[in-house]
Amino acid sequence: MKLKELLDELNKSTCYNNFIKDNKCFLCAVFCVPEENKYNLDFFIPDKKKIACFEYPFDNFKIYEEKIDEAKEIDICVKIDIGDIKAEADKIKNEQKVNMNISKTIAILKDNLWNLTCMDNSLGMLRIKINASSGEVIEFKKGSLMDLMIRK
User: Fold this and answer.
1) What is the pTM of this model?
2) What is the pLDDT along the chain (152 residues), one digit of tens a residue?
3) CATH 3.10.450 correct for 82-148
4) How far apart are CA 10 and CA 7, in angstroms?
5) What is the per-residue burial (b if ≥16 Cβ within 10 Å, else e) of 41-75?
């Protein structure tokens, strides 16, 4: 799946076409879990200072109550596209010599950066930041889901 394909599908949906009649907006973030075919496209509505989220297969949308002062429009012409995420995560994992079978990848595209959280079935986790335009790995961290838990 490519981002452009998702946007083309969204543009065909009735709910999106009804939404844009009343709202000027732009794409500001993409959330996806490729293994589950889950895709969300987030649009910033400057007049309302809110985010509207369209979840694939784009039957409806949600406008979040939180106010956001500003957001940046994302460029859909990216080197690393939605369909490349799993292969890119595996490539980086292998380059870093990490012995892990990625079972789930959570990917967020915002501010021209892919933020990937890759997990395996034994609580192993990788956190990877990739420049979406150049493909350059900005950050790589190996850890565990247990690292996220707070002990009291």
Assistant:
1) 0.91
2) 899 999 999 999 999 999 999 999 999 999 999 999 999 999 999 999 999 999 999 999 999 999 999 999 998 889 999 999 999 999 999 999 999 999 999 999 999 999 999 999 888 999 999 999 999 999 999 988 777 665 54
3) yes
4) 5
5) bbbbbeeeebbbebebebeebeeeeeeeeebeebe
Residue with tokens 């010599």: 97
User: In the chain, what are the domain boundaries?
Assistant: 3-63, 82-148
In one-letter notation, the amino acid at residue 108 is I
